[in-house]
């Protein structure tokens, strides 16, 4: 076997990112989700590495562990920056939140029973495996729903965001209480953990916004990300729900006019905070793009295509898919009542599913579980989403591009006005930006 070569690794990494960008372009032209192309790329890289005898084991494991930490942080942060807390958004917020949390709880329990029947004897372990399969992937939804009608697009963005955040939190809460048998202790641990973390998160978020608005240096966005990663890692060491820190910071930053009220409003310098928010969005989108790219490629390199032709894998996957879509149909009918297409089939599994699957502790991993179930469900849900969008007359259009293009037009309007009118126009432009983002 060929020894690990740093230059080959750099070349491969660079080419993967370039190809991922091209896949996004292809996705907009052909309606083929880029996630499918990335998985195929991973499968191709696996064959190539085996053919040329290139060792990838340690490299992939080390990369995956680092990407896991950064990925969770960036995904939750990107999701939080998409949540706008206003009165007019309240109906869509509570409906999307209700669909996300009820769907997560019911589908994870039902899926756990299916996995217990076919693969895993212990229900707790089966539930740990079921949670990742029950989480909708905002990493696929956001790059796909920009072409939907406004209310449908907003609902999907909020639902996918809530599904990601709630699913990740549930997964780590379950892992954090793996050795606890007393239900009362579990409830107390979860409640106290959340209350302590929320209190610290609010204090930290206010502090970070106030500190970073005063920094004059141009290089501060990755400094802010480093601080968040530091807080996340320290929180994990102290067994806190670190993702809540990231979530609340994103909410405070994106909704600073809501959180900084009364006397606190005087401490806020809106132009500085708006500048940080605008640039921070670009950084999180770019970072999330890299994380998404490597996770889907690495997933492709870890799967075996032969599992797709396994009858038992197909049966289990179809049963799980029936549960996921059946529950989704009932919940969308309950909360939206009508116009549930194409939202019914926009429920892809992807990055979070893979990320959490690789995060299952060694002591809970089960050799009898067939990873082909993951591949089957990811492929089918992505294909179903694509067909639903095409048949409804919509194209795959990134939500990020839709928002970014609008911001560029607003910025051009600001540049065209006279200096004396600029302050007032900036307020109007900021209002427009908040309406679209």
Task: Please bin the fraction of helical residues.
Answer: over 70%
Number of strands: 0
State the oligomer: single chain
CATH architecture of the largest domain: Up-down Bundle
**What is the count of DSSP helices, taking H or I runs of 4+ residues?**
17
Based on CA inertia axes, which overall geometry fits? globular
Proportion of β residues?
Answer: under 5%
The sequence of SSEs as H and E is: HHHHHHHHHHHHHHHHH
Distance between the termini: 50 Å
CATH topology of the largest domain: Na+/H+ antiporter like fold
Going by helix content, strand content and strand pairing, the class is mainly alpha
Biggest sheet, in brief? none
Mean pLDDT: 77
Based on CA atoms alone, the radius of gyration comes out at: 22 Å
Which runs of at least 5 residues are low in confidence (pLDDT < 50)? 402-407, 417-422, 433-437
Number of domains: 2
CATH class of the largest domain: Mainly Alpha
Task: Describe the protein's architecture and organization.
The protein is mainly α. It has 2 domains: 6-397, Na+/H+ antiporter like fold (Up-down Bundle); 402-437, no CATH class. 73% of the residues lie in helices and 0% in strands. The protein has 17 helices and no strands. The longest helix has 33 residues, at 270-302. The chain is globular and about 65 Å long. The N and C termini lie far apart (50 Å). Residues 402-407, 417-422 and 433-437 have low confidence and may be disordered.
What order do the helices and strands come in, and which of them pair?
Elements: H1 6-30, H2 34-52, H3 57-80, H4 90-118, H5 123-133, H6 138-141, H7 150-176, H8 183-212, H9 221-237, H10 242-254, H11 256-259, H12 270-302, H13 311-335, H14 351-357, H15 372-391, H16 399-416, H17 422-436
């Amino acid at each position: 076997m060929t020894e690990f070569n740093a230059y080959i690794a750099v070349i491969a990494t660079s080419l993967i990112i370039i190809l991922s960008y091209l896949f996004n372009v292809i996705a907009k032209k052909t309606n083929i989700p880029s996630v499918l192309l990335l998985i195929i790329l991973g499968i191709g890289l696996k064959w190539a590495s085996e053919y040329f005898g290139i060792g990838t084991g340690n490299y992939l494991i080390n990369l995956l562990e680092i990407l896991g930490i950064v990925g969770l942080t960036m995904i939750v942060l990107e999701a939080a920056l998409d949540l706008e807390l206003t009165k007019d958004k309240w109906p869509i917020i509570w409906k999307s939140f209700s669909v996300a949390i009820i769907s997560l709880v019911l589908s994870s329990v039902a899926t756990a029973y299916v996995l217990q029947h076919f693969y895993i004897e212990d229900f707790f372990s089966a539930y740990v495996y079921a949670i990742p399969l029950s989480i909708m992937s905002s990493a696929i939804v956001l790059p796909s729903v920009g072409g939907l009608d406004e209310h449908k697009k907003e609902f999907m963005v909020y639902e996918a965001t809530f599904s990601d955040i709630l699913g990740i939190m549930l997964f780590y809460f379950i892992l954090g209480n793996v050795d606890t048998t007393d239900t009362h202790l579990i409830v107390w641990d979860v409640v106290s953990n959340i209350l302590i973390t929320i209190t610290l998160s609010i204090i930290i978020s206010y502090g970070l916004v106030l500190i970073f608005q005063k920094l004059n240096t141009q290089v501060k966005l990755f400094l802010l990300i480093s601080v968040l990663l530091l807080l996340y890692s320290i929180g994990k060491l102290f067994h806190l729900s670190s993702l809540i820190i990231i979530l609340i910071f994103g909410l405070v930053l994106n909704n600073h006019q809501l959180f900084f009220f009364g006397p606190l409003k005087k401490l806020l310098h809106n132009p500085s905070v708006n500048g940080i928010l605008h640039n921070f969005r670009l950084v999180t989108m770019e970072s999330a793009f890299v994380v998404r790219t490597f996770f889907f490629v690495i997933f492709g390199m870890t799967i075996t295509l032969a599992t797709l032709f396994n009858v038992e894998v197909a049966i289990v996957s179809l049963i799980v898919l029936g549960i996921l879509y059946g529950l989704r149909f009932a919940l969308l009918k309950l909360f939206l009542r009508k116009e549930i297409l194409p939202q019914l089939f926009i429920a892809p599994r992807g990055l979070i599913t893979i990320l959490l699957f690789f995060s299952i502790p060694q002591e809970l991993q089960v050799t009898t579980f067939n990873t082909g179930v993951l591949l089957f469900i990811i492929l089918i849900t992505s294909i179903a989403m694509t067909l639903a969008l095409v048949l409804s007359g919509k194209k795959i259009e990134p939500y990020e591009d839709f928002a970014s293009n609008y911001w560029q037009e607003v910025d051009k309007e600001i540049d065209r006005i006279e200096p004396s009118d600029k302050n007032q126009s900036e307020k109007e432009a900021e209002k427009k930006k908040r309406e679209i983002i």
